[in-house]
Write a structure and sequence with these properties.
It is a single chain. By secondary structure, this protein is of the alpha/beta class. It has a single domain (about 1-245), classed as 3-Layer(aba) Sandwich (Rossmann fold). Helices cover about 35% and strands about 25% of the residues. The chain has helices at about 40-50, 75-80, 100-110, 120-125, 130-135, 145-155, 175-190, 200-210, 225-230, 235-240; strands at about 1-10, 20-25, 30-35, 55-65, 70, 85, 160-165, 195-200, 210-215, 220-225. It has a 6-stranded mixed beta sheet, with helices on both faces. The chain has a 4-stranded antiparallel beta sheet with strand order 2-1-4-5, with helices on one face. Helix 3 (about 100-110) packs parallel to helix 6 (about 145-155), helix 4 (about 120-125) packs antiparallel against helix 6 and helix 6 (about 145-155) runs parallel beside helix 7. The two termini are about 30 Å apart.
Amino acid sequence: MLEVKAIEAVYGQGAPVLRGLSLRVPTGRIVALLGANGAGKTTTLRAIAGLLPFERGRLTAGTIALDGRRVDGVAPHRLARRRLVAVPEGRRLFTDLTVDDNLRAAAWALKGRRARPPGGIDAVYQLFPLLAARRNHRAGYLSGGEQQMLAIGRALLTEPSVMLLDEPSLGLAPRLREEVFTGIARINRDRGVSILLVEQNAVLALDIARYGYVIEQGRVVLEGRVADLKANPDVRDAYLGSATGR
């Protein structure tokens, strides 16, 4: 579904942030991308989503392919219409608009597509009932967890085949964190959406993922099935021992 081969990326005139990084996200799977702060996780998602130029960054080597077709260099809005969508850290909502208007804005962006997602906005409210109860509230007044649900719901309206999620649990209360991750798992299970998940809380990430990559200084240093990663003493010491799971 998604294949990244030996990509390198820089910001401005600085040193490379990604150094020959490669990974795959198979159809219908959740893949976790783990690493310490500054390892290059967010840069990897930006590179795949075509967002590096907006951060004064660029790819300098490597390829990115979606369904066997190269997409490196494709603009983000065109990638979204090819059903690859990113939910960035920080959510990036229209904070002065209501929940309903945020979702309608996302649906409006699909006017170039021949068909809209089945169920549309109602499907988002079914996935996240808390949003339905707050549909007329301004997005800026929602809790962090509710905002994250809205950001994911907005992305879901593009009917994605691949979703890139950057730190969806960041700053969330435990109860809302659980609801967000339950929603992510349902999106994968019920809709077959392939997901590349960057998540600092490795326990949460590995609970719903099938496969994982560990990166350091812009390179993959370890990869494998989730069961194997959980059993790896280096992974346990670095990412699981201090993580606050459920």
